[in-house]
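Appendix B. Raw example, untouched.
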Amino acid sequence: MPQRIWCVDDDRMGLLAVSVWSEQVPGRGEDAEPFVAHHSESNQGVLAVFDGSGGAGAAPAWQASDGEYRTGAWVGARVARLATDVWFHDVVDGEPAAPQTLHEYLRFFQERAPQRRSKISGTMRRQLPTTLAAVHYRLVNPQGQSQLELRPLWAGDSRAYVLRPESGLRVLTRDHTRESDALELLRSDPPMTNLVCSDRDFEIDSQRLAYSLPCVLLVATDGFFGYVHTPADFEVMLLRTLAEAASADEWADRIRRDVQSYTADDASLAVVALGYRGFKDLRDRFADRLETLADRYVRNRPRGMDLPCPPARGESGPGPVTAPEDPADLPARVRAWQDHTWHTYRADYETHLPPAPEERL
C-alpha cells in the first residue's frame, strides 16, 4: 500500500511537524499529499489536507504521461493543494488570510485545471470536487506572552482540531453534511452539502480562535477519523502511537501503520506542535492524558472488540483482548458503549464546534 511520511523537529524554534499520507489503490488515491508550511520570519504557517470526492468526481478528467486517466476527484484534490500553496505564499507577502481570498485562489486554479465535461449530469455530480481542511496560524506576543491566533478554513467533511494535554482533542470545524453528530456520522455516510469544485458555487467556512502555547494543531481526512468506533478512539490512537515512539519520524510511521490497519479509505493527516521543547517534551506532556483516556474509554469497552489498549502504568505491551461472554450480544453492547463514551467525551470535544448554519441567524 503506497504511503509517505514527513517530519520536522526543531526544538530551537519550538516547532515539530509530521504528516502522513496513505492510499488504498496504488496511483489511484484521491487524497492529495498534506500541505504543511511555516514561515519563520513572520511567525505564521498553515497545515491542510484535501480529499477528492470520488463519488461526485468519478469521471475521468486528465490523462497522465503514462497513458493512465485520473478522475476529477484526483485532479481536484491536487489542484486545491496547489492553490493553497500559492495562497499561503501570498499571505506571507501581505495578502489577508481570509476565507474569501482562499476561495478566490481555489476558484482561479480550478477553472484552469484539466477537466472533461461529462454528458452525465445530476445533483450529485461535480467537476473536480474535493474537501479541504486547513488551519492558518500566527504567533503573536502580547505583553511578552506568546499566543497563537488560529483560523480554521474548511469545505466538506475533512476536519481540523486542536490538541492539548489538559483538554484533549477539540474539533474546530463542522462537517458540511445535514447530520452533525460525530457519533452518528460514524454510523452513517450522509452526502456533503458543500465541496470545493469548479462547476458550482461553494463556500470556505471559517472561525477565529486564540490559544496560549504550547499547542498542537491537527488536520485529517475521514480516512483517519471515519473508521474508528468512537470520536475518542481517534485521540487514543494519536496519543498511544505518540507514547510508543522515540522520535517524530517514528511517531509518523506508527500513525501510518495504525491507520492502515483499520481504514478502508485513503488517509491524510498533518500535525504541527508549537511551543514544545522537542519530541520528548511533547510525548511526556501527554502521558497523563493518555492514561485518563484509557481509564475512561478503552479499558471498559465490551470484551471481544479487537482494538489495541494502552497498557496501564507499570505494565508493558497492549492490554489483553478476551473473548466475549456471549458473541451474539456484542453488537448491542458495542453500541451501548459507544453511546456512553460519546456522552462523556462530547462536551470537551465540541468546545469549539462552530454553530450550525441555522444557529447563526
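End of appendix B.
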